[in-house]
Structures are given as C-alpha cells and as structure tokens.
Amino acid sequence: EQKRIEAEEAAKAEAEAQAMASTSLPVNKFAQEAGFRSVYLDWCGEYGKEPCESGFQSFCSNYEAARKTGMQLKMDEYADQNVHEREKIEAEEAAKAEAKAVAFRDRENQLKEEKKKAFKEQKRIEAEEA
Predict the structure, then answer these.
(1) Which of 55, 9, 59 is nearest to 36 (CA)?
(2) What value, to the nearest 5°, has the Cα angle with vertex 82 and ends 77 and 83?
(3) Cβ(58)–Cβ(81) below 8 Å
(4) What is the distance in angstroms between the CA of the first residue and the CA of the last residue of the chain?
C-alpha cells in the first residue's frame, strides 16, 4: 500500500513538473494551475520551513527563471530565497568556510612548531646524556 501511494505521488509530481515545464503562464497563474503550491509545501516539509507567501513567490520565480534559462533549479534549503537573499547567504557561507580554513592552517602551523620544539628538546636531552 505504501509503495502504491509513493508511486502515485511520484507520478503526480512528474506530471506537475511536465506541466510546469511546458507552460509560459505568469508565475502566480502558473503556480495555481500546475498545482505547484503542493510541490512548495512538500519542499517546506522536507526542509523544515514554515510556508509563507513571499517564500512561495520566490520559489516559483526561481523555478521559472531556471526553466527559462535552461538551468536546473537547485532544490536545496534556499530555493525559497530571492537572488539577493541567496547571494547574502552564499557570501556568509563562503566567509565561514574561509574562517574555518584559516583556523585549520593556523592550528596546523601551531602543531608543526610544537613538533619542532619537541624534536629540539629531545635532541638537547640526548646531547646532555651523552
């Protein structure tokens, strides 16, 4: 029974995707007629997002822009963000990644220095014992 339900849902999603890909209606009408709101609500559930009209409009706009340019829509946790919000998020993530890389390099250099000091200390001890 569960597999049948999943197959029906997959077929419905595929039909909606095909309908969306073949229409050139304005986003609001496109979204209503193609049943795109259900796709958005499913996406919200998957990413733990609260559905909202502005997020839905951005989600639809992103899909429509991707469809028009032939690009694949990235259906990640930011698919409901407009271009400016997404750029800000990506810049923040890049800054965090850079900070982590710098911290890693700093720690790596610190460990190298500690190893050099330990090696020198070992050599000093061996020289005193000789």
Answers:
(1) 59
(2) 105
(3) yes
(4) 81
Hey, what amino acid is at 100?
K
Nearest-5° Cα angle at 121, 119 to 126: 95
Sole residue written with tokens 């706009």: 61
Q: Which amino acid is at 39?
A: V
pLDDT at res. 63: 77
> Which structure tokens are listed for 45?
């559930």
- Average pLDDT, rounded, for the chain: 79
pLDDT at 97 over 60: yes
Tokens of 130: 């000789």
The size of the chain, in residues, is: 130
